[in-house]
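Limitations
The structure tokens in this dataset are predictions for the assembled complex, not deposited experimental models. Users should treat interface geometry with appropriate caution, especially where small molecules or nucleic acid strands are included. An illustrative entry is reproduced here so readers can see what is and is not provided.
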Amino acid sequence: MTLARDTAMKNPTNSLKRRFSLKFLKTLVRIRKSRPPPSPSASSSWEIRWRAQKIKLAAYSSMALSVGSKRTWSRALTMKLRATMGNRRWSSWKGSKKMTKRRIVAKKNMEKRHLEKDMNSGLQQLRQLVPGGESMDPRSLLEETAHFVRCLETQVRVMRSIVEGFPC
Amino acid sequence: MEGNIGIPVAMEVDPSGQGSLSSCFFDPRWDNSISMEQIDPFDSTRSSIVSSPVASSLGAGEGDGGMIKELIGRLGVISSGSSGHVSPQPFLGHMSTNNSTNGSSFTTPLNSPPKLSLSTMGHRIRGSFPPLSEDCLVPFATDPGFAERAARFSSLGSRDFAVGLDGKNARVSSSIVEGGDSWEGSSLSEQVHGGETGNVKKTQHVDVSAKKRKLVQRGKLDAVTPKGSEVSGGNNHTSTKKIKSCQAAEKEGSGKEPDEREAMAAREEKMQKHGKDSHSKQQEPPKDYIHVRARRGQATDSHSLAERVRREKISQRMKALQDLVPGCNKITGKALMLDEIINYVQSLQRQVEFLSMKLSTLNPRMDINMEAFLRKDIFQSRESILPTDSSPAHVFPYGLLPSHGTIAAISPVQLPENLLDAATTPIHRSPTIHFPHIEGFSTVPSQVLGVWEDDLQTVVQMGIAPNLQPISFHLGAGSTEPNHGQMKVES
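Predicted assembly:
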């Protein structure tokens, strides 16, 4: 029993889970304490949406933070979230498409290199899904996708178990 | 070993009617010349990538002395480093330009291991006409380093010799290359497989190619004799002064392993002999050593190889992803698989969205609770490896469910330490968690629990949530009758 537990502890995804849930729970507590800013509509549904968005951002950012900077997608995600939170545009954090010069160059390169090779648009779609995937070559894109998927699963599991922990 | 090495003579009569007799001499400076390495098959892909620029330079080297010079420099660098492997395949493209070599290149077994090392040799190239002279052979005996190396080779079980032969009376140092009008570089390598176990001592192959530009090559392929000495010769007649000779000799160790192989030295030389053109040029067509990793019918040029390697890697990643995404196992086809992966990622993101929405609508009264969870979580993560021991939790594996057992679906209270455990359950599991509970829980052997530990569905901890009624389990104290357990679960 202790052996199984030990191996489970050594499992990196397990420690990732632990780190993520710690961070996320902390942020969650803070979010729940916080009050939404005065809104134009001030309706309760707006507040709920605000909260949900906050929680979603918190989930993603704590995931990215718990992964660290060793992964491309987590770096990209952190940058994106930081830009979003700085702009207070929480409602469209995915839509921060401000093209920096670097990104434009990267995109050009990407198009040149990969566009013809993507026989199907699958990889292109995948690029839009995985943070930072716009400028990746297919191989690293697939790698990052694998890691990203694993982290997303962990995230969903933790969040779900938190939700289940609360009776509604 | 010395005995093996000492017989590096390849004689050949040129079928072209030149009737040139070539005798080859070895004066190997082993210090410079031998690089040997064993590469496992997986490294070969990498090595082929590394080697491809070299091959291209080889191909370009014809007709350009400057390119040759560069090539030699590269070869020297490669061979000096331990990492200097060149997989034979890149030579194929080059060799294919030499008409003579194609046939022999394919004679090498397909399954031969991708070991090839190029070495440049600082050696003397003796004149073609003189027969074997002792002074050539002397260095073998006198060179103390040689014996040492030979021992090492034999220990490795593969012996490679790179021997530079030249039919010319010229002394060539690898570092000196004069730009010529056109050079042809050829690399020769040959492999002998020791299917014959009886021949402990294999002879070497000597390949000599001397080429001059504007030369008609006559390729000649010689069968490999079991004795292991093989010479293939082709004569190139040269009107030019420059000769490049590449020599390769391979020798196979006495070991049974057919795969051991040796590598080859490529050397280039320039000779300027105007007057001697008529008589002396003797060529032995390059023996090619081509290690073919491509399967039958596959292209073997470097681009195709690189592309194949790339595709291979991508498909590896795809495979890893396929394992991750549920339901993706049965799908064949990259496009479908990608679609599936995309769908999965999207569904996960949607789930995150949904869950965060759900979390935001939770009962505000739970705030306090959450803090308690959080504290507990920190405590737990710091402290215990065995949360099930530290908390009044009960583990109910599926398999313990007896026929009389009752399953009660309760709304579980997940505590942080439980949360981590519960998170191990698959995502697609239904949110309601079933707690099989049997009276005879205590009778279950501990090792069985240990086995099921990883499968544990949930760990229920009681009495934490203040606004919930604690979940109570009544365990029969005696538990003499496991199948008649009484169970009370309240949610």
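Some entries come with short summary sentences. For this one: Chain A touches chain B through 63 residues (CB under 8 Å).
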